[in-house]
């Protein structure tokens, strides 16, 4: 066997990746990660990987791994010429908006997001004329065009803080497009949907379908269970959990607590990564796959590094400029 392949297999084993590979699969994975990491250096590229990606991506090739906020912030600070975004389009568009002179690529043509598809720029313009004077607070899971029509962007990591700041100056705000996250934030802030916060009818196809009634059953079966759910879950589920937040907050909660077991109500890649990062902790499986996130694979990353041209992310400068203002407002208010 090629000695460099042997070394790569050992590196992946030390990361625990053999635990999730069928027999023979690790050598196949190692051949791909080896070649990707070589080409990445050659192209002076940084690989950003959202925590919903599979661990062969997050751990095997990711340079910057985290939630939407950490990745957006990290992209602002990277010195690399090229950003390969193992995540979904809205994340890569955000990276391009923040780094117009860099090349940004997404290794899949199918990396959309149901929230991002739930609203367009014309919808936001109509909302503004229906509710004149109200600020539009927009979840980062939206297109560049929608961001351009917004006053401030939020991610799951800072939505509550940013909204609190907004309510210092406004009695009422518009929050788009996730109706569940909006309702969960309203509950956390003691606000009433319809009266204090205008919501849009978008939802995440992954988080809206979790069954809240299962949580009581799991709690009986696993005493001492800590239940963590992403803020995109419906309020009736959030009412049953110990902790609601974004993926960054959920990972920190796991790191800083000593529960008998953890039930993670979110996309499956998160739990896979948590298990490898905290092998001494117990995790109970309850997750759903995001088809958009999972359309990125090691194979598609390698194909992109060999021929990047079809996968370049472009945002028209007029839209990028306005969207950037709304994203920068988030960095200012979240600081
Ligand atoms: P986070 O920013 O919490 O990682 O969320 C991104 C996302 O798409 C959740 O579905
Ligand atoms: Fe979009 Fe939901 Fe997938 Fe996140 S998990 S990218 S919100 S569809």
Report the principal-axis shape. globular
Describe the main β-sheet briefly. Answer: 5 strands, parallel
**Can you identify the CATH superfamily of the largest domain?**
NadA-like
Beta-strand percentage range: 15-25%
In the CATH hierarchy, the architecture of the largest domain is 3-Layer(aba) Sandwich
Helix percent reads 40-55%
The name CATH uses for the topology of the largest domain is Rossmann fold
Estimated radius of gyration: 20 Å
Overall structural class, as computed from helix and strand content, comes to alpha/beta
**Series of H and E elements:** HHEHEHEHEHEHEHEHEHEHEHEHEEHH
Ligand roster: 1,3-dihydroxyacetonephosphate, iron/sulfur cluster
Write up what this structure looks like:
Helices cover 44% and strands 15% of the residues. By secondary structure, it is of the alpha/beta class. Helix 1 packs across helix 2, helix 4 runs parallel beside helix 5 and helix 5 crosses helix 15. Strands 9, 10, 11, 12 and 13 form a five-stranded parallel β-sheet that branches. It has three domains: 129 residues, NadA-like (Rossmann fold, 3-Layer(aba) Sandwich), CATH 3.40.50; 89 residues, Rossmann fold (3-Layer(aba) Sandwich); 83 residues, Rossmann fold, CATH 3.40.50. Bound molecules: 1,3-dihydroxyacetonephosphate and iron/sulfur cluster.
């Amino acid at each position: 066997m090629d000695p460099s392949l042997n070394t790569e297999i050992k590196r992946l084993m030390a990361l625990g990746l053999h635990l999730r590979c069928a027999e023979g699969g690790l050598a196949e994975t190692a051949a791909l990660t080896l070649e990707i990491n070589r080409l990445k250096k050659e192209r002076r590229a940084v690989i950003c990987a959202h925590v919903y990606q599979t661990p062969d991506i997050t751990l095997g090739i990711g340079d910057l791994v985290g939630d939407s906020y950490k990745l957006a912030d990290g992209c602002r600070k990277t010195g690399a010429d090229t950003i390969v975004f193992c995540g979904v389009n809205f994340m890569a568009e955000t990276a391009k908006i923040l780094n117009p002179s860099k090349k940004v690529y997404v290794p899949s043509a199918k990396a959309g997001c149901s929230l991002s598809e739930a609203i367009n720029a014309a919808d936001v313009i109509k909302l503004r004329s229906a509710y004149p004077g109200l600020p539009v607070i927009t979840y980062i899971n939206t297109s560049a065009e929608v961001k351009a029509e917004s006053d401030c962007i939020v991610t799951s990591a800072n939505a509550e803080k940013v909204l609190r700041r907004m309510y210092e100056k406004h009695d009422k705000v518009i929050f788009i497009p996730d109706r569940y996250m909006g309702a969960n934030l309203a509950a956390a802030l003691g606000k009433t949907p319809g009266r204090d916060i205008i919501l849009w009818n978008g939802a995440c196809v992954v988080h809206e379908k979790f069954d809240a009634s299962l949580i009581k059953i799991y709690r009986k079966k696993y005493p001492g269970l800590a239940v963590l759910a992403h803020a995109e879950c419906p309020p009736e589920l959030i009412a049953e959990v110990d902790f609601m937040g974004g993926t960054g907050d959920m990972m920190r909660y796991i790191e800083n607590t000593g529960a008998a077991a953890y039930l993670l109500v979110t996309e499956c890649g998160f739990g896979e990564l948590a298990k490898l990062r905290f092998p001494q902790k117990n995790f109970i499986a309850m997750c759903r796959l995001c088809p958009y996130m999972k359309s990125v694979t090691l194979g598609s990353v390698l194909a992109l590094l060999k021929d990047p041209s079809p996968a370049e992310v472009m945002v028209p400068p007029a839209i990028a400029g306005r969207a950037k203002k709304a994203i920068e407002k988030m960095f200012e208010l979240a600081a």
